[in-house]
Structure formats: structure tokens, C-alpha cells
Design goal:
alpha+beta
């Protein structure tokens, strides 16, 4: 059984209906709670239930972020980061105050996408390092990440077995060409899913 508490919302995921019911009854004896049924949307995550599993997506949020950045009609990229360019704190020209604000807004939005895009965190981390004084080269890297997002979206599916902690997952992701990024992805996925 998994229990997530966020401010005044509780999400409960369990493979046992009886255990779920017992916990809801126990919580309702001390707190005023309301069972809203199956989860469909929570903190920029869309949830649906294929077969006996649980699938998470951020397609709506990704499209909203692309719309916010004015990139709904952009060309796609096959990797989240260019394999030939490196970022530096001194290369390029500083962004104007308005463009720097936009940069920070979009990069902040990209951080939420790392939940369902396990091959994006490295690239997002790279552009986050320049939030204080972003330059045009950093903005180009952000746009590259956004162009990568335009490719059909990643998702995770969790299938629960007989034990609540015995879960297997299907993780659909595109592997980038950057060796360091690929190594980080594999290490992250091994850490999270083993």
C-alpha cells in the first residue's frame, strides 16, 4: 500500500480493496474525509487504468508548457540535449530581463516533467544551473528540450501483484545519444526500479 499526502489531499494506492477500506475507516474516525473514488488528475499528472495497472502521463501539462513557450508548431528533436554542444556560464549573450523571466518560468515547468520523463532530468539539471544569469545559449538548450518533448509523450505503467510492494513497471522512454546522459538515465532507472 502506498499513501501520498499533499496538503489536504491523500492518495492511496493498494492492491487490496479490504486494506484500503480499513485505512479509510480508520482515518475517518479521526478526520473528516471524503472518498472521491479513482484518481484521474493530480498535481499535473493524468491517471488512467489500463487492465489491472495504473498509468501516469503528463501529456496535458507538456502541451500547456509548449503552448506557454510558443512552441506548439516546432520541429521535433530526437534527444533532450545536443550531443555536440556544451553549456557554459560565459558563452553567449545575457538574456534581457523579460527573456530571463521567461527562461526561469519554462525551466521551472520542465522540472515537473522529470516525473514521467526519466531521460529528461539530466538535460533539465544542466539548464537549471544557469537560472541566475541565463544566456542565449542556455535558452537554445531549453528550446531543444522543448522540441524533444514534442515527440509522443512518455508514460509509466505500474501493475500490482499479490504483495503491495511487488510491482513491475513498463517504462517507455527514448534513450539519448549523449553518453553521460545515458549513463545517468540507466543509473537512475536502476536505482528507482530495483
Amino acid at each position: 500500500m502506498y499513501l501520498l499526502v499533499y496538503v489536504d489531499d491523500i492518495i492511496l494506492v493498494s492492491s487490496s480493496v479490504a486494506a484500503t477500506y480499513r485505512l479509510i475507516v480508520a482515518l475517518s474516525s479521526d478526520f473528516a474525509i471524503k472518498d472521491l473514488g479513482k484518481l484521474h488528475f493530480f498535481l499535473m499528472l493524468e491517471v488512467w487504468y489500463p487492465g489491472d495497472g495504473l498509468a501516469l502521463s503528463q501529456q496535458k501539462y507538456s502541451l500547456d508548457l509548449l503552448r506557454h513557450a510558443g512552441m506548439l508548431e516546432c520541429k521535433t528533436a530526437t534527444t533532450p540535449m545536443s550531443s555536440t554542444e556544451t553549456l557554459s556560464a560565459t558563452d553567449g549573450t545575457l538574456l534581457s530581463a523579460d527573456d530571463a523571466t521567461e527562461y526561469r518560468s519554462v525551466v521551472g515547468g520542465l522540472q515537473y516533467l522529470t516525473i514521467t520523463w526519466p531521460n529528461v532530468p539530466y538535460a533539465v539539471n544542466c539548464v537549471c544551473q544557469y537560472l541566475r544569469a541565463p544566456r542565449d545559449t542556455h535558452w537554445s538548450a531549453v528550446k531543444h528540450i522543448m522540441r524533444y518533448m514534442f515527440v509522443p509523450l512518455s508514460y509509466m505503467v505500474f501493475t500490482f501483484g499479490s504483495h503491495p510492494l511487488a510491482c513491475s513497471q513498463l517504462l517507455v522512454m527514448r534513450i539519448g545519444l549523449v553518453t553521460q546522459m545515458t549513463g545517468d538515465q540507466q543509473g537512475l532507472c536502476s536505482f528507482l526500479w530495483s
